[in-house]
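[DERIVE STRUCTURE TOKENS]
===
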Amino acid sequence: MELLSVNAGRAKAVEYTNAPSGTTGIDKRPVAGPVRVEAPGPAGTAASGVAGDDVCDLRFHGGNDRAVYAFAREDLDHWERELGRALVPGMFGENLTTRGLDVDNALIGERWRIGEDVVLEVTGGRIPCRTFAGFLEEAGWVKRFNESAAGPGAFCRVIVPGEVRAGDRIEVVHRPDHDITVARLHHAATLDRTLLADMLPAAEWMESGLLGLVQRYTDKYGER
């Protein structure tokens, strides 16, 4: 399991984003050399955990629980076949493009060591948005992404900061005692919300947005 590339994006003005600033950093590109990764701060006030990476809409992106976004090269390959075009690392707005790591079947709360020092903890999957759809210019993209056999990729918080670079080894160093994967949580959040209460075993590790969704559903309808 390895880190294929580290990707960062600079803010650009576009018409397809919902960001109040009218800008987005979704167009990420591979970065040469070591890149600092650290916890950026609370959601809503802090941006990316990856140095040099711009986050333009702090309402839905950035902060400690969504500090780093990882996506598997294998899933990019799936979408290359589906879309009939080349997808370079960073094309889906991911900070880390991995190879050999089963990102979508990672457990919520699973921890990865990348390189010498950095440890990340999985907090949830990516919910696609208008900006993502506009950037790719694909019809019906949000629905296609949610329903695809390829997974959503994983948001992570930074447990141990440090530097990462392309070629770093990735090691799974901890798996919590539940069976809630990134893919299962994403399916419940986007396609079948009757399953949200079943996600409670992973609640203590979830990123705040998904945790709020699970809690609101459970409070309204009760545990299954």
